Amino acid sequence: VSVSEIEFDPATGELLAPARVVEQLLAAARAAAPMPAGELTASGAVEAGAAHPRLGLALRIATRPLVELRLERGERSAAGWVALGGSALLVPVDDGRRRLLTLETSHLALALVRLNDLGPRPVDESRPVIALTPADLTRAVTARDTSVVPQTQADEREALGELLAGLRARWRVETHWTPPDNSPGTRSLEVLDSDAGLWLVVPDGPSVDLWPTTPTIVFRLLCGLLPHDQELGLFD
Amino acid sequence: VTEGRDLLAQQLERYVHPQLGFSIDLAPGLELTEDVEGVALVAREGVDVDGFRANLTVVVERLDPGTGLEAYVDGSLAYQGPTLSEWRLLDRAPAALGASAAVRTLGLYVYDGLGLALEQWRAVVDDHGWVVSATCAALTYPYTTDILTLSAESLRPATRASS
């Protein structure tokens, strides 16, 4: 790893580094071990074996979170963490490196919206619900193949065709936390984002239903992925 | 869902603006202010949630004669966007304010370090633009939007016929 592959902004605490380096940092933070020095020291991310205070905050949040987030968008994946002192995100950038940053938890909704490019989309209330097996959904999305819906279901097949013709992304956000008795400890949201509109991917027994939806409902569900204070056992 | 909305609606109390004559149904206990320049009504929650007091405002503005609803919304958003830090529009959809066709928008921005959700309803009545804005801490949106939406959509703009 060359120094130029690692960039650290001491003002914001934002670190841009190869995935392997970020994993080393996280592993050291989890083990309360000295930070890996050489490559990171020149960037200012590590000083005398310790993380820069702004980077240290991100590492504390990431290694001792109340809530973990897993984000998938096509082939790309990212992670997030929420703690009492703030939130952190670890996201891929186009050159293959990872960006580790902290943010106020109140900005998390905006960050998730941006990462998933949520914005106005057409809403056609006549769109039907489309039921598929998970395997057929994957085939439809990867091959832009509408034949997974039988020809006898003309409306569903046409709607799937419009969805796939304008498909921007398939994305998913999951949250996980250590639950007290009254909480599932996890929630998820999966969306197909198309120029033809937004669709929720809703598990239904052995199949999945694609439900036409709106950006407002997706935003509401996105915010609702985080647990209540009571679900975290904070105010029992 | 309908039952839940009905129960929420039963909690609201009718407010009538003393000068402008419009009415809107509001949750009891809100702090009401009628003397903010350029804003006909500010109704704020009494307590902070996530560092912010959710609120609802009503703005009435005179428009150029003949201004249509979509043009009004376009112009209003074009003005508003650059004035709000990190503004991002999420949704824009048809709605109604009383008997008037309206457009509902939802967006996010940052104010005073807080991420906020701003949902707005705009209508044009008798060459006046009406804007009802509901603002809350972004992550509280799922828990505040139902009652704020009920309030916002209860607005009955004053018309020439009613004033």
Write down the overall geometry of chain B.
globular
Largest sheet of chain B: 7 strands, antiparallel
Order of helices and strands of chain A: EEHHEEHEEEEHEHHEEEEH
Which pair of chains forms the biggest interface, and how many residues does each contribute?
A: A-B, 22 and 23 residues
Mean pLDDT across the residues of chain A is 93
Q: Which radius of gyration of chain A do the C-alpha atoms yield?
A: 21 Å
Provide the fold topology.
The complex is a heterodimer of chains A (236) and B (163).
Chain A lengths: L6 E3 L4 E4 L1 H12 L7 H4 L4 E2 L2 E2 L1 H11 L3 E7 L2 E8 L2 E7 L5 E6 L4 H8 L14 E3 L1 H10 L10 H12 L1 E11 L8 E9 L2 E8 L2 E7 L1 H9 L13
Antiparallel strand pairs in A: 1-2, 2-8, 3-4, 5-6, 5-10, 6-7, 7-8, 9-13, 10-11, 11-12, 12-13
Chain B lengths: L1 H10 L1 E4 L6 E4 L4 E3 L7 E4 L10 E8 L6 H15 L1 E13 L2 E12 L2 E12 L2 E10 L3 H13 L10
Antiparallel strand pairs in B: 1-2, 3-4, 4-5, 5-9, 6-7, 7-8, 8-9
Description:
The complex is a heterodimer of chains A (236) and B (163). With 236 residues, chain A is α+β, with helices and mostly antiparallel strands. Chain A has helices spanning 19-30, 38-41, 53-63, 108-115, 134-143, 154-165, 215-223, and strands at residues 7-9, 14-17, 46-47, 50-51, 67-73, 76-83, 86-92, 98-103, 130-132, 167-177, 186-194, 197-204, 207-213. The N and C termini of chain A lie far apart (47 Å). The mean pLDDT of chain A is 93. Chain B is 23% helix and 43% strand. Chain B has helices at 2-11, 69-83, 141-153, and strands at residues 13-16, 23-26, 31-33, 41-44, 55-62, 85-97, 100-111, 114-125, 128-137. The longest helix of chain B has 15 residues, at 69-83. Chain B is globular, with a radius of gyration of 15 Å. Chain A binds chain B through residues 104-110, 113-114, 118-120, 123, 214-216, 219-221, 223-224, 226, and chain B through 50-51, 86, 88-93, 106, 108, 110, 113-115, 117, 137-142, 145.
